[in-house]
Protein 1
Amino acid sequence: MGNSVRKTSNMRLGIAVVLITFAQGCTQTHFKFPPGKTMADFEQAQRECSSMPLIPCMQRRGYRVVSEEEAERINQVAAQGLDVAGFNMTSGDIFLGKSVSTPGSRNASIEVETLGSNTKCSGYAELVKTTAQGKGSMGKLDLICKDGRTVTGTFVYETSLSGWGIGADSHGHEYRFKFVLLSLNPEKLRKDFQKMIKDPQKSLNSTTL
């Protein structure tokens, strides 16, 4: 029957979760993209694998075969965006918000808002280093707040779907960040982030959102 391609793509905080469906004979294979890879990367990998067995060749390049059920779940989760939480270690303010997908690139927009004061900050995140399975991928973020502050930071993925980061604002205040695919509980967050003041490294490793 030849190969046909159906393309769907989503981004989570700059990491691509793109599913490609090939029709091979009468079967379909769903590929999940490695972090940071775009459609152009996929097409290049496909050309490189054109003279080899497709699935093993693509897997060696970090593309993972997923079931139809997992493909559907990934698409559903991606459509919801990624929860982002930040903590000002000087003031104790907590920021909550979402990342917004940017298909086909390593970038994603971010909007967060402080609890209580309702100060809004907007900006973007960008991957600068990627790994095949997601864990260890690193990036940077830049935010501008309506009260005049700017916030810059770096982040790392603990899994392909979650991670943490550190940063500082233009007033010299330090920040900690977490991003996940789960709902964030503000009260639980406040307690977890407070632990970072006493033991930052331990708290970053153990915080559960």
Note: The radius of gyration is 19 Å.
Protein 2
Amino acid sequence: MYKSHQLLKSGKFGAALKIAAAIGVLFPSMHANAVVEQAFSLPMTVEYDTNPVFLSNDKESAWRYLIVPTYGIKLDDGLNTWFADGSLAVERSSNTDLIVKREDPTVNFGWIRQIAGGKVRVRGGYEENSARIVELQRAGLILGTDQKRRTRMFEVNFEKLLTEKLTAFSDFTYEKTTFSGGDIGVVGYYIPTLRVAAEYQLTERTIPLVEFQVSELNPESSPESRFTGAMAGSKFLISPAFEWNFRAGWYDVNGSGNAESFNDWQGVVAAIYRTNKTSTKLEASRLVEPSGIGEYYKVDRFQGQLNYELTSLSDVGANVDITKNEFRDFDFKFRQASVFYRRTVAQNWDALFNVAHRQLLIEGDRIYSNTVGFTVTYKIPTF
């Protein structure tokens, strides 16, 4: 009890609670006739991991215990929508040498304004998570210590119907990522991104599209790199059950100083198929992303998701995620496959059983980890 009291009194979480309380007080007072919706969930997870830090030799296992209280609120007056949500991931383990104690907050807030033939959306956010987990998947880095990765972001989205069939989109995003806890081989960076796109309703089932994107990666104490890319493609609504889409084009990364310059093709193809009891989604892509080692990198990725409804209260599913990440001096592959069983056990209570296998292939080594987890979630979808 004392530890929980001290945690809530700490500056970070005390400020978060004050913000949440202020949101709860201010939202209803903005418009007397507005509709207010709130939601709450509390997932509680116990997981066994055979190799949580991906050691190639002297592997050690650990139990992980995680609770993530999450609260969201939305106010809608028909013209404006204000929203905010926050969570606190509290993690403990049976071996603190492998998995340190963590309390990672996430906060999102924003506003959506309906305009003639479109809408404007503004959103801000803050997130803390494990540098070890994120940079393992993004950059293949096996970090010796588990430090914090902090991300602050702000974005503005604009959507406007220009004609009966032509819709324009514009997005601006600013993201800043920092790392703390000592020299762990990664560097912070900030990256502004501008994207403009357009869709044309050619027929009821065919929607061609084009998009153009520019961004600039600015790492701490390193030269910046600029990304320019364009893609064109189409959405195809084959039937109410089946749809697919593709985008393809070219990109160029121009690095200043000793930063790398390169160019290549990029693209995405995806398909979704639904029946009364199943949902299947497949996606293959080649894209460019920023990383914690201070440069853009190329990502080839395949994702597959399958869901099957057993009864009105239960379902099963499987997920596959395969990536190949290419950097200037090395490349690696990360593979993950999982299956789950989920069931509603009582009003407001869900249970989930999950089994996963992960592989990291880097510099001739094949490192793997297996996890078995059980999650019980208490949730109030709306109140």
Note: Residues 1-11 have pLDDT under 50 and may be disordered.
Protein 3
Amino acid sequence: MSDEHDPPPAEPAKQPARRRNFLQGPVDAVLRLPAAVRALSAALALILLLLTSLTGLLNTGSELPSSWNRFINTFHPGPKPSDSVVFVSSDQVMAISYLAVLSDNGFGSIDLLDPSQMEQLVDRRPGVVILGDSQAQAQLPVMSDRLRQLLTTGTKVIGMGTLGAALFDQLQPFSPLGMRHAAGVNTTEVRLAANSSASMRANLPIDAPFRVYQADDDTGIAIHDAGSLDILQAHRLAEASIEGSSCGGHYYPVMQQGDFYMWGYTQVATGLTDMGRRLFVDLLSDALKNPLTDTTVSNNFYEPGTYTGTLGCGYSINSYVLRLTGAGQVNVHVTSHQSLELTLSTAGTNGVTPRVEAVSPHLTGRAAQQSGGVWLVTVAYRSAAAPTTRVSYDVDLQYPAQPARRFPLGVLTIVFIVALDTSRTTSSW
């Protein structure tokens, strides 16, 4: 019998209220759904996510990034390129001379097309397309979207001389193998570079220079590397032997970047030395046997604002890539104590269209109303430079730019919820 003075029993201690996350209710509701409904929700969420991303890209006037192209090509790659080689040139004498070299070295399927017939390449899908002309003023034809797609993602392209560099500028705006990095060379003596292929190193001298052509009657072009091409994924294959360059750097008439190959010379192939013929054949063989790769160059886009730059010997051009995400004008102003050159270029349907705005210590470049796209601003020092030359400047970039579109929170929330472990019936937050 209890004493009437015994204390009352202690009440159980109160537990602190657990804070509910604001997503707890929706998560629990989704987890109570049947597995089939959750799977259907996941599929719909992913479709919506992809459509939202694609719509955002199109609304900003942007091109599809390489990741989208790889995604599409994975599930719809189209027919594979053949083992044929097609030379595109209006200079038939030159083209036939190189095709004869290939025929003598076992290339069975070779052909010649005039530039006006380039659209035939879409249906033929050759393994390698060579384009070149000995005339510096030769022009490229207007290319259809289907042809541009083939040349950028469906075959290998070897560009010869200035016409080849111009083609790379059209296929890939601001290409590291384009005219922006090209310089004239008056020698055909080269030596193999560090990135040359195993076949080249097996068939050609490794430690000594050799001549590509018997004479240096015609000049060629080479890609000038002052140390910046590594970040653009360009591979050096053969370096020209140039002595006494006041600004240093290296010059490469034979280079590769993805599925694009540069052969800087346009002399007739009958003038090739034995080693030069071997180098050309090895370049074609490597192009045919190597798998297709992603040729896209990763550009760092500059936001609107003011930037300080320096030019000098060996790096006479600085570039600024702009991505316009809305409608409006492009305004660029350069201030310097010395004369500089300002160029605005736009990546249009038919390649890059350059416009030199002015040459002065104070430069202002304006582009009329634009509605998106990718632009390149270059600031160049064209005067004579010594190894100690340094030219400082400020460049102010103003153009329509909006913050990058982000996926809606609701879409990301759905994707997160349906990705939870389907075996869970409760959730702790």
Note: The chain has a mean pLDDT of 77.
